[in-house]
Amino acid sequence: MDRFVIDGGYRLTGEITVGGAKNAALPVLAATLLSSEPYWIEGIPRVRDVLNMQKLLRFIGATITGDEVVTKHIDQSLAPYDLVKTMRAAVLVLGPLLARCGEAHVALPGGCAIGPRPVGMHLDGLKQMGAEIHVEHGMIHASAVRLKGAQIRFETTTVTGTENLMMAATLADGETILDGAACEPEVVDLAHFLMRCGAKISGAGSARICIQGVDQLNGTSHGIIPDRIEAATFLIAAAITQGDVVVCRVQPESLANVIDALRLAGLEITVQSDAIHLRAVRPLQTIRVSTAPYPGFPTDVQPQITALMSLANGMTTVHETIFENRFSHVPELIRMGAEIAIDGNCLDITGVPRLSAAHVMASDLRAGVALVLAGLAAEGETCISRIYHVDRGYERLEEKLGMIGAHIRRLKAL
């Protein structure tokens, strides 16, 4: 397996550009199953999860050439386990396949081991829309002559559940109302894409989304929004190395909570229309962080902020409210000299003057990139194995960081 080797202690400076959002590209790609007409999608990141989604779409019958995606003929309404076992977002093909084909057979998905993320709310919503569903031998089997509009209330916020049911509802008979819907920018981006295809959607970005079903959708062109989690990661990379970095191609409003936290930690931040300039001008200060659904502090940035706060002056508390197992980075950070205690779903972090290099292992996507950040600041040479987790969500990470002064290289597996 490939691994990263990082010679730490170098200050990052310069400009770095954010790529397309993985978590926006995945549902948009799944939504191409809703129509037989061609789509042109710009800014699709070439990360492992997206490549796996494209592989799944080709298996189903899509033709993908560059930015063009065509699903004129669906060969089979099947998403087998071998193609979904490493990617939880594969469940997003369930709604579109069911809406277009009247049936779908999708393996229960895999993904990062950061706690249970059940698909029950997806299935309950589809049942309310008239689908017959049963789960057998690890496969979801769903059928419906045509889905019917329904009023669906989510018990807890679910991004993929909101996206799946919104896609399914575009071709349903009548109006569907999603109450308690996720408000993430990626949900809004999907709604914009679907509306360009002829869908009738209102309320995206709020807790109530209304979808009026139509008979068919058309193809369109679309540009994927910037990846706010990648942008936050780059900002924290600058902070942890006491750097001076401009992060370009961002939507600053989607990062408001992260920017506020970094300012409270003592970082100097200047926000422009599509860029954020971060300068480390004073010692890091401790903060309190609690993850929450958007627009709260993102759970996907919790491991990175944990790495940063391990070098702050004093005690930091981090409260994880979304996933129960999202602390797998902590033992590896401790190996690098961090002082962190786990107390239920909270972390008590006592800042240390410096981190030291070590051999560590990535256990999931965001945990892996947190170790990269720690390695950038650590004294000595850090080796991070199992970086295929990082490749799931970051495109050419070592190249991008290298352009602003990081001493990081990828060692290929023998």
Write the topology of this structure.
Layout: E1 3-7, E2 13-17, H1 22-31, E3 39-42, H2 48-60, E4 63-65, E5 68-70, E6 78-79, H3 81-84, H4 94-101, E7 103-107, H5 120-128, E8 132-136, E9 139-143, E10 151-153, H6 159-169, E11 175-179, H7 185-196, E12 200-202, E13 208-212, E14 221-223, H8 228-240, E15 244-248, H9 256-264, E16 267-271, E17 275-280, E18 288-290, H10 302-309, E19 315-319, H11 329-335, E20 339-343, E21 346-350, E22 359-361, H12 365-377, E23 381-385, H13 388-391, H14 397-402, E24 408-411
Parallel strand pairs: 2-15, 3-14, 6-7, 10-11, 18-19, 22-23
Antiparallel strand pairs: 1-23, 1-24, 3-5, 4-5, 7-9, 8-9, 11-13, 12-13, 15-17, 16-17, 19-21, 20-21
Helix pairs in contact: 1-2, 1-7, 4-6, 5-6, 6-7, 8-10, 8-12, 10-12, 11-12
How would you describe the overall organization of this protein?
The structure is a single chain. The chain is α/β, with parallel strands linked by helices. It has two domains: 203 residues, Enolpyruvate transferase domain (UDP-n-acetylglucosamine1-carboxyvinyl-transferase, Chain, Alpha-beta prism); 202 residues, UDP-n-acetylglucosamine1-carboxyvinyl-transferase, Chain (Alpha-beta prism), CATH 3.65.10. Helix content is 31%, strand content 25%. The protein contains 14 helices and 24 strands. It has a four-stranded mixed sheet with strand order 22-23-1-24. Helix 8 packs parallel to helix 10. The protein starts with a strand and ends with a strand.
Q: How many β-strands, per DSSP?
A: 24
The helix content is 25-40%
CATH H-level name of the largest domain... which superfamily? Enolpyruvate transferase domain
Q: Give the class from helix and strand content and strand pairing.
A: alpha/beta
| Relative strand content | 15-25%
> Which residues form runs of ≥5 with pLDDT under 50?
111-116
CATH class of the largest domain: Alpha Beta
Q: Give the distance, in angstroms, between the N- and C-terminal Cα atoms.
A: 8 Å
CATH architecture of the largest domain: Alpha-beta prism
**Spatial ordering of strands, largest sheet:** 22-23-1-24
Shape, principal axes of CA atoms: elongated
The major pleated sheet works out as: 4 strands, mixed
CATH fold-level assignment of the largest domain: UDP-n-acetylglucosamine1-carboxyvinyl-transferase, Chain
Number of helices: 14
Mean pLDDT: 95
